[in-house]
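Box 3.1 A note on notation
Throughout this textbook, protein chains are presented in two layers. The first layer is the amino acid sequence; the second is a token string describing backbone geometry. Keep the layers aligned when reading.
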Amino acid sequence: MNTDRALVLQFLQGGRKPLAITSNPLAHDLRGELLELDTERGTAVLAFEPPPQFVQGARVLQGGIVATLLDFAMAFAAHAVHAAAERVFSTAALNVSLLRPAPPGRYLARGHIVRNGRHLLFAEAELTAEADGKTVATASAVMPLSDP
């Protein structure tokens, strides 16, 4: 079983209390936390507080890390919508818009499923700074679906 899916099931069965993301080494290193899931709407809210090694020379998060946070939010939204049936998916196309610099701090990544088709899943995400609620980046993704 996919380790992220196992964490989603643990979250859903454990009273939906905030849960450290220990299922993925990168999410763990980014100090990820699963805050909310909605299996009917296909949404996920994750928190991240990337440590200094993910900050580039201009004292902002490296753009690839920002994209990673958004990708995690969309993946967890996909796991939420497919929690009852184990489906295999991966990100085939990812479009990221970096809207403003992302200084070190805590961020909320909100992912949601736009369309859950038979073979393709379409998702979107938004990354906001927890301190001021400003959106720093958005993303959309296409994820092919298959059975294990």
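Residues 63-81 form the longest helix (19 residues). The mean pLDDT is 95.
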